[in-house]
């Protein structure tokens, strides 16, 4: 009984995914703010109308659920960087390895990596610096065998701070790389 | 006459603070003059004969424009109008201390329109400096006033005025972003694009009909080209990775952009419709913020030497040449319309300030006394620089003259204004 329900929901997910793949050009089209998504344990930022596309042949229901399960390391999506640094600190190694393993087990899954900076200085130069952070996350994943085709590294520069004050602790929270999976961007 | 005025202008020093527009709507830009010349040329604009038939007096617009330039001191002549063809009472004008006076007549024309005639006189030499005639619909009093102010400004300074130009900027209220277009005095603000995601780096096409900009509406930076009159827009660059920093070539056909499709942020050019991508320069570091100069050079920011500095490369290719050497953070270069100088943002201590570099003499001058300056943009006549800064924790626009003396601030009652771009001269 439980198995039948899961199969049905996977079919539904597949159908919905086919409908939701149109490119978004409407400037006002919503979706939750990125900083809400990146808050790790919280799932409040996930748009409930959006559906994670699942290939029933390669992804298991349990691992998809783990992306949002606060108890799973896969629900953690942010890597913080030191000031003026683009090097992933060793404390994030286990997190990067878990996501690499997930991407290798789910080859149809794609990941968008968004690099962020603090607010000081030129917006466009900060955009380029944020790219160095997302590139660092991407490189760490490809070194663990994840194919480039599953990954896209982009930058939000200083435009999407998770913390809005001009303080040292706030700037630290904004020097960040966020990992988003298919259906979340 | 022109020579004398320019001498006066060179002697000008920062002066009074004067609020010109106060009762503005919440999202309407209000202009304050925060620094002006002390030795401004005294000029009078008489009330025009027949202008009380219009919804508002064109001469109010003319006086506000000239005052805001920081180059003129407006002299009051009182409410009695002076017509374009009547003999000028030079004694009355001189007794009020005005060196020049504009007089005019507004008369009904066909189809509900009006004809406006303006004459400008030198009250010392008691001679006409020229005249202008135009027709207008009654609701065009503002545009007509800007054109008259441009005429007076050019006659008295020898340079074209910029009162009829427009500016683009991004207004952020709460979590909503609007790309807006307004007259150079902040009036007539119109929204070209509204989005829940950030919009940055608007850049005017040379003919003033289109804007290129970066929008994050698809959760990554993508470059669009947007036709203002129709609202139609197309993607100019959406390659894998980030797409940003659009800059128009002087011919209006191609854009310099920054792409990360091949690795770090690097300079490319594309056609405005997104076709024909080509590499412009290569480095092992970050190359970004390209800006095209009239002489065919592209100025840009690069950290190839360790810290972000300004470099230039010929649009046709070749080796890049370093332009800035002082300090550890020089970004956002914008060459002047004549290609002879460069403004950029430099970090001095902890302050980010607009700095002017004379390319021939290599002399630099910090133009501003603010500390979070961003995104400088030249007026098309090269005399003023519009930029973004912060006052009281809020994003505002500010303008400073190329000599650092005239200062203005444009702000909204609530919300942040940022990412300004001064548009080109309108083509009639």
Provide an overview of this structure.
The complex is a heterodimer of chains A (185) and B (428). Chain A is of the alpha+beta class. Chain A has a single domain (35-42, 57-181), classed as OmpA-like domain (60s Ribosomal Protein L30, Chain: A). Chain A is 37% helix and 12% strand. Chain A has 6 helices and 4 strands. Chain A has helices at residues 2-19, 34-37, 61-66, 93-105, 123-143, 168-174; strands at 78-80, 111-116, 151-157, 176-181. In chain A, strands 1-4-2-3 form a 4-stranded mixed β-sheet. In chain A, strand 2 (111-116), helix 5 and strand 3 form a beta-alpha-beta unit. Chain A is globular, with a radius of gyration of 17 Å. Mean pLDDT of chain A is 78; it is low at 1-44. The longest helix of chain B has 17 residues, at 141-157. Chain B is mainly beta and 428 residues long. Helix content of chain B is 10%, strand content 44%. The radius of gyration of chain B is 23 Å and the shape is globular. Chain B has 2 domains: 41-157, Rossmann fold (3-Layer(aba) Sandwich), CATH 3.40.50; 166-422, TolB, C-terminal domain (Neuraminidase). Chain B contains 4 helices and 31 strands. The chains are: A alpha+beta (185), B mainly beta (428). Chain A binds chain B through residues 23-31, 33-34, 112, 114, 120-125, 127-129, 131-132, 135, 152-157, 159-160, 166, 180, 185, and chain B through 175, 193-198, 200-201, 215-221, 240-242, 244-245, 258, 260, 263-265, 286, 288-289, 301, 308, 329, 331-332, 345, 347, 352, 374-375, 393, 419.
């Amino acid at each position: 009984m439980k198995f039948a329900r899961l199969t049905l929901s996977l079919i539904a997910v597949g159908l919905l995914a086919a409908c939701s793949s149109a490119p978004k050009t409407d400037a006002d089209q919503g979706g939750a703010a990125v900083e809400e998504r990146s808050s790790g344990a919280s799932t409040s930022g996930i748009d409930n109308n959006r559906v994670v596309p699942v290939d029933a042949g390669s992804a298991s229901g349990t691992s998809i659920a783990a992306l949002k399960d606060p108890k799973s390391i896969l629900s953690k999506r942010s890597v913080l960087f030191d000031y003026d640094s683009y090097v992933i600190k060793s404390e994030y190694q286990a997190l990067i390895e878990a996501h690499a393993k997930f991407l290798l087990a789910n080859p149809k899954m794609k990941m968008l990596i968004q690099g962020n900076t603090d607010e000081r200085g030129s917006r466009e130069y900060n955009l380029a610096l944020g790219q160095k952070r997302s590139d660092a996350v991407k490189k760490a994943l490809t070194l663990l065998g994840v194919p480039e085709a599953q990954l896209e590294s982009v930058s939000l520069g200083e435009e999407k701070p998770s913390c809005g004050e001009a303080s040292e602790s706030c700037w630290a929270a904004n020097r960040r790389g966020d990992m988003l999976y298919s259906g979340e961007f | 006459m022109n020579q004398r005025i320019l001498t006066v202008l060179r002697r000008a020093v920062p002066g009074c603070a004067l609020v010109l527009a106060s009762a503005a709507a919440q999202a309407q830009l209000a202009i304050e003059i925060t620094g002006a010349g002390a030795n401004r040329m005294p000029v009078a604009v008489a009330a025009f004969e027949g202008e009380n038939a219009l919804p508002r007096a064109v001469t109010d617009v003319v006086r506000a424009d000239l005052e805001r330039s920081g180059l003129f001191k407006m002299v009051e002549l009182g409410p009695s109008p002076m017509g374009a063809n009547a003999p000028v009472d030079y004694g009355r004008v001189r007794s009020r201390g005005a060196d020049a006076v504009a007089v005019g007549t507004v008369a009904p024309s066909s189809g509900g329109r009006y004809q406006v005639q303006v004459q400008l006189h030198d009250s010392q030499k008691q001679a006409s400096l020229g005249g202008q005639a135009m027709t207008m619909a009654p609701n065009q009093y503002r545009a007509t006033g800007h054109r008259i102010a441009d005429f007076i400004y050019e006659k008295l300074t020898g340079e074209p005025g910029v009162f009829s130009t427009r500016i683009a900027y991004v207004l952020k209220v709460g979590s909503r972003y609007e790309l807006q277009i307004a007259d150079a005095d902040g009036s007539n603000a119109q929204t070209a694009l509204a989005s829940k995601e950030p919009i940055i780096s608007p850049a005017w096409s040379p003919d003033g009909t289109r804007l290129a900009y970066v929008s994050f509406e698809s959760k990554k930076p993508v470059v669009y080209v947007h036709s203002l009159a129709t609202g139609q827009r197309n993607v100019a660059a959406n390659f894998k990775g980030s797409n940003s920093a659009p800059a128009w070539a002087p011919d209006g056909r191609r854009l310099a952009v920054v792409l990360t499709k091949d690795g770090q942020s690097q300079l490319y050019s594309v056609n405005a419709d997104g076709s024909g991508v080509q590499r412009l320069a290569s480095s092992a570091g970050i190359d970004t913020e390209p800006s095209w100069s009239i002489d065919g050079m592209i100025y840009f920011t690069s950290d190839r030497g360790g810290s972000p500095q300004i470099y230039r490369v010929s649009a046709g290719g070749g080796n890049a040449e370093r332009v800035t050497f002082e300090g550890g953070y020089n970004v956002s270069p914008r060459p002047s319309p004549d290609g002879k100088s460069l403004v950029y943002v430099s970090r001095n201590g902890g302050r980010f300030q607009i700095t002017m570099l004379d390319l021939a003499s290599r002399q630099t001058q910090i133009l501003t006394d603010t500390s979070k300056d961003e995104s400088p943009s030249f007026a098309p006549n090269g005399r003023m620089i519009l930029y973004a800064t912060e006052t009281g924790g809020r994003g505002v626009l500010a303008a400073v003259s190329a000599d650092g003396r005239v200062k203005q601030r444009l702000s909204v009652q609530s919300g942040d204004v940022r990412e300004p771009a001064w548009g080109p001269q309108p083509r009639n």
